[in-house]
Amino acid sequence: MTEAQPTTSKAKKKFYKKPVFWVGIVILLIIASAAGGGDKNNKSVTTSDTATKASTTSDTAKQQPTATQATPATTAPATTTPTKPSTPTATVSQKNALAKAKDYLSYTAFSHDGLVAQLEYEKFSTADATYGADNVGADWNEQAAKKAKDYMSYSSFSRQGLIDQLVYDKFTQDQATYGANSVGL
């Protein structure tokens, strides 16, 4: 018969059932693969004699070439690539603002600041609205050209009148001029 396990809530888990144990194993495997799996050109000296294979570590170390004995053509110096600091991921509100910005630009043209204002009207915070407009990937000159074409489709404008209207829509002066040029004014 086996002994009954204690029924207390603080029964000890076996060490291999604890998450900390497995995290440690994973870390060790990563370190081992990084240390041992690196340079495939650095081959150790082997012989067919089984007695030599069973020699001590110090004998093996004497037989293996050292890094200073290797030719520069066969081994490259270990270099580390600088890693970018991790950028924070977008919040749910920022993702929603970006999705809404893409939705708006899919059917009408906006300036950057006009899009931010529209997103704010939709009750997004200024920070989230700005994130959406900054990351939507729009070509603001192209947006000005689309808006100018839209205005010209239902009304007549002088060159300066169209530029003024586009500036009113929060396009920059250069973007508004680009828009007017794109429709031939």
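Second entry:
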Amino acid sequence: MSKYVAFLRAINVGGHTVKMDQLRRMFEDMALSNVETFIASGNVIFNSTSRNTKALESKIEGYLHKALGYEVATFIRSIPELADIAGYDPFIGSGPNAPANPLYITFLGSPPNSESTRKLESCASDVDTFHIHGRELYWLLHGNFSDSQFSGARLEKVLGMPATVRNITTVRKIALKYS
């Protein structure tokens, strides 16, 4: 049995409120075990006998769409994958002891194609720096969030694919807790 983390888009944002005990029950109803949530932003940790994460993502997305009445893009990572993501330092000095510049991880279903990557790179500025590594986009923000022209929705539009964004602190806490 493998342990996974599902990063869900559109949970407790944009008027979509879901209580974490309700979300845990939904995952249990899908025959997933040892279900936990980590903060109320759509981070669900669970065990499954399945090794096919794409099939798990589809199963969860279908179930949540039916149960909640709206699409919930789902991005699953194994605990070893999450540890690698949390430990990856794409920008010199963005590691765990980095200064105050916020680092965000954008989870994607697949690596973006070269056209989308070029489009994103052309959007870099003094405020926003981007780095794609596999199925993750690392977004370093120089300054305040209000200084940026980016959001999860804009990143999705530029990349042409669904995505969900988490602060690196959240990703590292989950990786540390379950590694």
